[in-house]
């Protein structure tokens, strides 16, 4: 029968295969849906071709980056090749490539289905909101099932073949490094187009959001796919793999790897059941349907894992830790919904302040964004604290296992979370396609309602993913300490029990680590700023030089705007990611493991704060704009509307570029630290 961890690894593989079958079924279900007319086919093809063109160019650059990293891993990680450890270095390089390949596949699958289901969701809106919702949601479910199935199967395969937790960390680093650049690049692309399209279209020219006369409108729709679908898919793939990798490192020392695979397997099974049960009733709300599916999945997960815990005789306190993580994820999602929901008080207040000009829009939205950080950070902190104490009560070595279990508990229903998240950009695209194809006001009303629910779902997902990243990187900090102590023991030095903030080396690391997320965010947002200005000039050029464009008698040059977004994103995506990685290595080689312990602590704290602030403030400004556009405070074209658009313009790179990229940044630096732990022990200046 084999050891329990082997048995549960195999069960994880079987359930992963089941998720692939479900993804294939939903893919074919969506693909068979009709498309309304030739114009929709044309628009859909423009979006699809633009998305894949960007993805190919981005992956070509990332392929070169990955090749360089492979060489560095072979030469130096986990220790220099001339120390006689070539075999392990080569294994880690191969597994790193495996992680990058699967992360890239997650993005490819997402774009493949999203660019099919957008036009089909728009077509279905001609019949009913229920059919349109199902086309969007099942399109998103393809992404959810494929991403989680791939991440779980990948971790199980790597562990089954290697049996070495450190090699699993290399697999996670592969996923994280590609996700970091994919999320950053996709975010820069999408916000370059979105900001330019909004400022020139809505504010300057007074034309609708997805008016086909706007040269940036196709690039904007392409951006929804490369940023919110491919980028977020890679991000959540990375979070899931990182949580499993950290748990494997910690659990290996206490013989609890089987529990990790049991929990993650049941989470995927619960998500499979949940996506089949999700429906929109005849008089139902899309937002309630999405949230209802999440709550149902949580309930199924709780029951399945309790049964498994009792049958397999796992410690019930570990199950409680997993439930704490899941509940914390839901609470963080509810908090995000409160601050960003289109029917909630903060959005209405910010929309009201738009009547007094953009300065008040920015001040009000930023203040609510700051307020939104408190409940989420308290939730993450309390979950980590209680889980730590529960684990500590079990026995030696279980304290950090409690936190890592909470992390995988929070990520357990990620299949449903990704399905909801991918639904957002799909129905957003559906709205744009419907307007460009001239499907009429009734279809636009339906797609607007679906889009509003999608915005809220995306905000909840971002809050959830930030919370999951928080618990995951605390687990990775524990994994780093475990690997450092192994290296110290091998070197005949005393182990480190904790990182003392009164130690000047640790404090040095805290200060540097705290600055990295801020600089990283600034680099990404400056990239959006530079590229948006280039695109605004191009839009002005087209309106001024193409005869009949303003009157709608001539088509704009969509391809030129797509090319501007693509070239700008490719140019900007590498420096920010390299900055975070290089700073991590620099601190490690200057101050050693203790400085890195402080560096990771500072990076986690400011990273979570900035990610929550930017994600929630950005979502709030977006829905405040939609609140005005729905007819409140003067409606479209009013001074309040112009102020709201400016607020949304500031919020765009907050919520879709920098904010969600920070999740991956803090994961990447944690994994780099773990992979280089032996080097930091052996080679540092002080």
From TrEMBL:
GO cellular component, one term: plasma membrane
Topology versus the membrane: Multi-pass membrane protein
Pfam families per UniProt: H_PPase
Annotated compartments: Cell membrane; Endomembrane system
Its job: Proton pump that utilizes the energy of pyrophosphate hydrolysis as the driving force for proton movement across the membrane. Generates a proton motive force.
NCBIfam families in the cross-refs: PRK00733.3-5 (NF001960), V_PPase (TIGR01104)
Protein name according to UniProt: K(+)-insensitive pyrophosphate-energized proton pump
Biological source species: Candidatus Pullichristensenella stercorigallinarum
Lineage: Bacteria, Bacillati, Bacillota, Clostridia, Candidatus Pullichristensenella
Gene that encodes it: hppA
């Amino acid at each position: 029968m084999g050891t329990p961890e082997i048995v549960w690894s195999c069960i994880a593989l079987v359930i992963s295969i089941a998720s692939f079958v479900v993804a294939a079924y939903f893919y074919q279900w969506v693909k068979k849906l009709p498309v309304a007319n030739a114009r929709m086919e044309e628009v859909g093809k423009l979006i699809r071709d633009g998305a894949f063109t960007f993805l190919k160019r981005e992956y070509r650059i990332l392929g070169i980056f990955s090749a360089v990293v492979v060489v560095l891993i072979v030469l130096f990680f986990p220790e220099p090749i001339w120390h006689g450890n070539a075999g392990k270095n080569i294994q880690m390089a191969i597994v790193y490539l495996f992680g990058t390949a699967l992360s890239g596949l997650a993005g490819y699958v997402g774009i493949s289905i999203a660019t099919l289901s957008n036009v089909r969701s728009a077509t279905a809106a001609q019949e009913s909101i229920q059919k349109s919702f199902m086309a969007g949601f099942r399109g998103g479910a393809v992404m959810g099932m494929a991403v989680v199935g791939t991440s779980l199967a990948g971790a199980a395969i790597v562990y089954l073949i290697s049996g070495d937790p450190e090699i699993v960390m290399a697999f996670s680093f592969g996923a994280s490094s590609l996700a970091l650049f994919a999320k950053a690049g996709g975010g820069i692309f999408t916000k370059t187009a979105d900001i330019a399209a909004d400022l020139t279209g809505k504010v300057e020219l007074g034309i609708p959001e997805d008016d086909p006369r706007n040269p940036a409108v196709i690039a904007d729709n392409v951006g929804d796919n490369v940023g919110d679908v491919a980028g977020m898919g890679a991000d959540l793939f990375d979070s899931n793999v990182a949580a499993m990798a950290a748990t494997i490192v910690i659990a290996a020392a206490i013989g609890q790897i089987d529990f990790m695979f049991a929990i993650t397997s049941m989470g995927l099974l619960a998500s499979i059941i949940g996506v089949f049960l999700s429906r929109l009733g005849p008089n139902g709300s899309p937002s309630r349907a999405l949230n209802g599916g999440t709550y149902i999945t949580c309930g199924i997960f709780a029951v399945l894992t309790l049964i498994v815990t009792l049958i397999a005789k796992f410690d019930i306190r570990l199950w409680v830790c997993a439930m704490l993580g899941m509940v914390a994820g839901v609470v963080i999602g509810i908090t995000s919904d409160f601050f960003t929901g289109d029917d909630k008080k903060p959005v209405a207040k910010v929309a009201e302040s738009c009547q007094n000009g953009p300065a008040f829009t920015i001040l009000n939205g930023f203040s609510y964004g700051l307020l939104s950080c408190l409940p989420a950070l308290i939730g993450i902190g309390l979950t980590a604290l209680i889980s730590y104490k529960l684990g500590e009560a079990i026995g030696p070595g279980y304290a950090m296992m409690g936190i890592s279990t909470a992390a995988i508990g929070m990520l357990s229903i990620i299949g449903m979370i990704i399905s909801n998240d991918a639904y957002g950009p799909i129905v957003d695209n559906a709205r744009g396609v419907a307007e460009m194809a001239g499907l009429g006001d009734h279809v636009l009303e339906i797609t607007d309602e679906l889009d509003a629910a999608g915005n809220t779902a995306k905000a909840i997902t971002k809050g959830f993913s930030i919370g999951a990243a928080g618990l995951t990187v605390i687990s990775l900090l524990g994994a780093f300490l475990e690997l450092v102590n192994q290296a110290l023991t091998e070197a005949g030095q005393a182990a480190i029990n904790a990182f003392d903030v009164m130690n000047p080396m640790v404090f040095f690391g805290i200060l540097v680590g705290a600055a990295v997320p801020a600089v990283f965010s600034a680099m990404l947002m400056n990239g959006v700023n530079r590229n948006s200005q280039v695109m605004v000039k191009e839009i002005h050029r087209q309106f001024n030089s193409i005869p009949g464009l303003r009157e709608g008698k001539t088509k704009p040059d969509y391809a030129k705007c797509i090319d501007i977004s693509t070239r700008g994103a490719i140019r900007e995506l590498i420096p920010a990611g390299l900055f975070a990685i290089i700073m991590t290595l620099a601190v490690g080689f200057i101050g050693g493991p203790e400085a890195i312990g402080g560096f990771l602590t500072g990076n986690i704290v400011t990273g979570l704060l900035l990610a929550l602030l930017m994600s929630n403030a950005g979502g709030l400004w977006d829905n405040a704009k939609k609140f005005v556009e729905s007819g409140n405070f003067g409606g479209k074209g009013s001074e309040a509307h112009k102020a709201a658009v400016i607020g949304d313009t500031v919020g765009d790179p907050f919520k879709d570029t920098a904010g969600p990229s920070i999740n991956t940044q803090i994961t990447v630096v944690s994994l780099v630290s773990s992979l280089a732990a032996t080097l930091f022990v052996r080679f540092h200046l002080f």
